[in-house]
Amino acid sequence: MNEIGGLTQPFPADVRSGWNAMTHCVYVVEDNTDLNKDLCEYLEMCGFDVVGCETGAAFYRALDARKPDAVILDIMLPDADGYELAQHVRKTVDCGIMMLTSLSGMDNHLTGYKSGADVYLTKDSPLSVIEAALKPLLRRASRSESDVVAAETAIPEDSWVLDMLNWTLRNPEGNEAKLTATERTIVKILIDANGAWLTRPEIVEALGKADTAENCRNLDTAIRRVRQKIIKEIGEELPVRTAYGRGYAFTSPAAIAGEAEAS
Q: 13-142 — its CATH code?
């Protein structure tokens, strides 16, 4: 049964915003033939260049032939796990990732985002909502290559990079880890200090919280968890040092990318 919500008239080119879908390629990975067909047809009516895949194997073959600007992934496929597909895409393709699934539990949402998804929607979402959620992902993909190259060349090669737009922290070798909102904010505060030591109360207050013993302990816990995450996902120690009575400092060269787009 087609679980996707009701059809509304799409706009192939949104005249009001000047935004045009025609230049964007979207992959739809869904094993339900009817559902796949309905979603592909709707997005084509919206002006997207759409490639439909019903299996993980078909998706991998399509990726070899052409890189998409965004992918829409089901989780429960006959030959693949949608979370694993998302992880593969995040590591190999610079594109937006939307999970579209019947799994609605909080744990599934969290697993989806940890796997690299930018958007997590359930299949009862109206088609118009799916289209609307795609647009911010594709606007990000529309940034010109020259802008991306300019941004990259402005960052020293030996720097860690906090990507505010994609919520990732990348080491100088190019390995990256996805951060939570709190982790992203803490790392940004430390990088903004340019190697200077920040006390626990200073960081807590920069997070918009009261300077209490409990909040300082929570900060220690958050930093410990992000250290563990970086070691596990990147294989390198996070260059955040701790000193009694001084607090924390990010001690390696670091830069922040995507700050304007994320604000």
A: 3.40.50.2300
